[in-house]
Design a protein that fits this description.
The complex is a heterodimer of chains A (518) and B (371). Chain A is α/β, with parallel strands linked by helices and 518 residues long. Among the domains of chain A are: 137 residues, P-loop containing nucleotide triphosphate hydrolases (Rossmann fold, 3-Layer(aba) Sandwich); 79 residues, no CATH class. In chain A, the strands form 5 sheets. In chain A, strands 6-7-8-3-9-10 form a 6-stranded mixed sheet, sandwiched between helices. Chain A has a 6-stranded mixed sheet with strand order 16-19-20-13-21-22, with helices on both faces. In chain A, helix 15 crosses helix 16 and helix 16 runs parallel beside helix 17. In chain B, helix 3 crosses helix 12. The longest helix of chain B is centred in the C-terminal third of the chain and has 39 residues. The two termini of chain B are 30 Å apart. Classes of the chains: A alpha/beta (518), B mainly alpha (371). Chains A and B meet through strand 2, helix 2, helix 12 and strand 18 of A and helix 8, helix 9 and helix 15 of B.
């Protein structure tokens, strides 16, 4: 904690020097309570006009709640917000827009089947009409900030980076002077991130203010003029990026020593446990969503698959798990062909599965933890005996999982819904590891979990590898992939690239392969 | 222990709330219509006489089976609106067979029950098959099948009708006396007897509870109802599950008419009690798909109907008033359950957060805590 104060002091003086004129946005003592938890506790910071101000903090630290308050979606229980020196009361997003605040959400709010022009004017028809005046205005904004947006393009035809710029343009069109960007880089590949940052610098140089929410520290350090760290709902420090390293910043965020995903020495054997040959899968419209996928995972090997979301990762996982029928190709579990097996048979044969969306695919949110521990293994001991559910056996086994995998819960009888994301995920991993799997299919295993749970999950994957499992790891977090994998493949438009060696590959190499730039 | 008490309290809060709302709304309706509010409630709330008690239990016996049939579907998010058609087809088929008296007494009853179960299951199976093979919503297909069932049975009834001279009632051949299920004289003070098949209802209720809560199949069925996507990922064959659940629901629906057939009417005819399937939907909602809850719901439904018979004489109010009460109860209970469910979730989340932060100071806020 002492370190924190030291940085706080030295950096605060720098920040004070910057904030000589009236801050564009100033938050004082913002507190927001939900039943049983305090999401924001006395959050105080100010943002200078014409700067990029980053808000960093791990998942669940209260960043999103704070931004919702600033955008008028939620009201703070205590505290004040000032824009350009005068206090404002933001009751709804339209109040925020009137005050010159615009929000670019992480998940784009665009209608695919409408043009850029139509998307931009939607809901703001009164500003510049819906036709030529609006078109001219869009072209003007696009030109001024180098957004490279053409008003008559169909949104469906635009890539992710461009869609994001349409969102930014939408906000500017509504007269925003302060832009809030919520995790804007989560959906971008490294090259697109660079483009975004160029845009942000452009906005800044035109006198606009950007509030940038992220937990990716390297990005924050490269683009922000000032960084506010939030931990457990409270502001920990506001620091100058020039005087702080990313490691130091991470420690401010986590408040403890930082875990790293790096693996120990190789445990890869030459015994294949999962072999996929020429797997092809046709989508609903007849186009191939997976083409000629060939891969081999050996016992003790973690095979990482990188890729921009929507390039066939989900389909690959579902094909392996028997939830989709491949059009052609073979999937071998050791020497057994499981291509046309049913999901239950595949699970019984020893394939553990950590789905990408745990709420939709891994949990019964309204059911107690011990029933969730049965899910996916409802034909296996100790959960069942013959046709009967063995509640006593399942409960005892759940107690064991909760203990061994550090699932923080007061009881195994509470619903899965009442646990945090990290604890839900630990329960899922514990459950999947409890039935002697030979292969573990893990899709985004640390998505949306806090740093503590992330470290625990990484440890479990490393442990699985040591115990001789073959692990297929799908992730959007390149550091996680590089740190945990023995081999990395990149998936792009349903095709797998060659192998990358995680010891020598860089995030840029992978980024190029992910966009097909090579 | 404390947690389970709280859960019980929450479970009871909703129906009690709904009954209160129904009481208030009905009173308002009576006031607006200028009817005697006090006289109506006095009539409805006086203790029923023994004869009525028998009527209440007998009515509930039949409703219970119907509600269980609906509840089987509800537990996996299937809306079997077709219990009405299923029990007609089943009762007709069983009545035609049993009336022939080909088999000796008890065996005749047993085989007739089997026929009813199979007929109900097959009729519901049409909707199940349409859903899994063609994606037809079971709501639409079961409603349509209700119409078809009504028409089909009337048409066939005319063909096989046992023409009694001097009567315009059309019905199947009367059961031989050896194939009738004797009533149980459980209530003193009245010659009326309770259907012997009240035992069948209890048995079905127990089987429902055991299958759903204690077996692997039941786990799969409930998992599918709670989250189809999670069930698929866990290895449940959802199509097969839909078909099986529809068949089971139809099988239970097949039994609905049996207490009437074997204990009261002894034939299937144009006067056979209609509308049992729809009452079953309301009662399943009221009883929250729980075998004991449904029993209370069925008794309440039957109680209101029996007590309303005297309304016209005692209070000068049409006995149709009871439909208003029943309707309001169902609407209110659906809303109340949702309100109570959300309150329960919030309460639990708060408790978990509190207990954890007390135990472990290093604990982080649950993500996605109500926003």
């Amino acid at each position: 904690m002492q370190g924190v104060c030291a940085i706080n002091d030295s950096a605060q003086s720098v920040v004070d020097a910057v904030v000589t004129q009236t801050p564009a946005v100033e938050l004082r003592g913002i507190t927001k309570r939900y039943p049983g938890v305090v999401a924001n506790n006395d959050v105080t910071f100010s943002v200078a006009r014409g700067t990029v101000h980053a808000i960093v903090g791990e998942n669940g630290a209260g960043k999103s709640t704070l931004m919702k308050i600033l955008y008028g979606v939620q009201r703070a229980d205590e505290g004040t917000i000032s824009i350009d020196g005068s206090e404002v009361s933001l009751r709804s997003p339209s109040d925020a827009i009137d005050a010159g605040i615009g929000m670019v959400f992480q998940h784009f709010m665009l209608a695919d089947n409408l043009s850029v022009l139509e998307n931009v004017v939607l809901g703001a028809e009164k500003r510049h009409g819906i036709a030529d005046r609006a078109r001219a205005e869009i072209e003007r904004i696009s030109g001024e900030y180098h957004l490279d947006i053409r008003p008559d393009d169909l949104v469906a035809d635009l890539g992710v980076g461009k869609r994001q710029r349409v969102e930014i343009l939408k906000v500017l069109y509504r007269g925003a002077k302060t832009l809030i960007l919520d995790e804007p880089t989560a959906v971008l590949v490294p090259q697109e991130v660079d483009e975004l940052f160029d845009n942000l610098r452009e906005l800044k140089s035109e006198g606009l203010t950007v509030i940038f929410i992220s937990h990716k520290l390297d990005e924050v350090l490269s683009v922000a003029d000032s960084i506010t760290v939030i931990r457990r709902g409270a502001t920990v420090a506001t620091v100058d990026p020039k005087s702080v390293t990313s490691r130091k910043l991470a420690e401010l965020m986590v408040g403890s020593e930082l875990p790293s995903p790096s693996t120990e020495e190789s445990t890869v054997t030459d015994r294949p446990v999962l072999t996929i040959t020429d797997l092809t899968l046709a989508g609903a419209d007849g186009r191939e969503v997976l083409s000629d996928i060939t891969l081999t995972i050996h016992a003790g090997e973690v095979l990482g698959v990188a890729g921009v979301e929507g390039n066939g990762q989900a389909e690959l996982v579902e094909a392996i798990m028997g939830m989709r029928d491949p059009s052609s190709g073979r999937i071998l579990l050791e020497d057994t062909d499981i291509s046309d097996w049913h999901t239950r048979e595949i699970r019984e044969a020893g394939v553990g599965y950590i789905p990408e969306d745990r709420h939709r695919h891994a949990l019964l949110l309204d059911a107690p933890l011990w029933e969730n521990a049965i899910l996916g293994h409802q034909t296996q001991r100790p959960n069942v005996r013959g046709i009967w559910v063995d509640a006593a056996g399942a409960k005892a086994d759940t107690e064991r999982i909760v203990g061994e995998y550090d699932v923080r819960t007061p009881s195994i009888n509470v619903t899965a819904h009442s646990l945090s994301g990290g604890n839900q995920q630990k329960l899922i991993i514990g459950r999947e590891m409890s039935h002697a799997p030979r292969v573990l299919v893990a899709a985004h295993p640390t998505r949306g979990v806090d740093v503590g749970a992330q470290a625990a999950i990484w440890d479990q994957i490393k442990k699985a590898r040591r115990e001789g499992l073959g692990v297929l790891l799908i992730s959007a977090d390149l550091d996680e992939l590089i740190g945990l994998s023995d081999t990395i493949r990149v998936i792009l438009r349903g095709k797998l690239s060659g192998e990358f060696d995680p010891d020598v590959v860089t995030a840029e190499d992978l980024g190029s392969a992910m966009t097909g730039a090579v | 222990m404390q947690a389970s008490l709280r859960r019980l309290g929450l479970a009871l809060a909703a129906p009690v709330l709904a009954l209160l709302v129904a009481f208030v709304v009905t009173s308002i309706v009576l006031l607006l219509a200028g009817d005697p509010v006090v006289a109506v409630w006095t009539q409805l709330l006086t203790a029923p006489r023994p004869r009525l008690i028998v009527g209440i239990i007998n009515g509930a016996t039949v409703y219970y089976l119907s509600a269980i049939a609906v509840a089987i579907g509800f537990r996996m998010n299937l809306f079997n609106i077709g219990v009405d058609g299923q029990y007609r087809v089943a009762a007709f088929a069983a009545a035609v067979f049993a009336g022939q008296g080909w088999l000796p007494g008890p065996l005749n009853i047993f085989v007739s029950l089997l026929i009813a179960v199979v007929a109900g299951a097959l009729w519901a199976g049409i909707a199940g098959w349409l859903k899994v093979s063609r994606g037809v919503s079971e709501v639409v297909s079961t409603i349509m099948l209700n119409f078809i069932a009504t028409g089909l049975v009337s048409f066939l009834l005319f063909k096989v009708a046992d023409s009694t001279t001097g009567s315009n009632v059309t019905n199947t051949k009367l059961l031989p006396p050896s194939s009738r299920v004797p009533g149980l004289a459980l209530i003193s003070g009245t010659p009326n007897k309770i259907y012997g098949f009240v035992l069948l209802s209890i048995l079905v209720g127990v089987a429902y509870w055991v299958i759903l809560n204690k077996t692997r199949f039941g786990f799969d069925l409930r998992a599918t109802g709670r989250s189809e996507t999670a069930a698929v990922a866990s290895g449940v064959n959802v199509k097969r599950m839909v078909l099986t659940a529809m068949l089971l629901s139809g099988a239970a629906a097949g039994l609905v008419g049996m207490p009437l057939l074997f204990g009261q009417d002894f034939s299937y005819g144009t006067t056979f009690q209609p509308g049992l399937g729809f009452a079953g939907i309301a009662i399943a909602l009221l009883g929250r798909n729980h075998p004991v809850g449904i029993a209370f719901g069925a008794l309440l439904w039957s109680y209101l109907e029996q007590q309303s018979n005297g309304l016209q004489i005692q209070a000068g109010v049409s006995s149709e008033l009871v439909f208003i009460i029943q309707g309001v109860i169902v609407l209110a209970v659906v809303i109340a359950y949702e309100v109570v469910r959300r309150a329960g979730l919030r309460m639990e989340q708060r408790n978990v957060a509190r207990q954890l932060s007390a135990d472990q100071p290093g604990y982080h806020l649950p993500e996605g805590t109500p926003v």
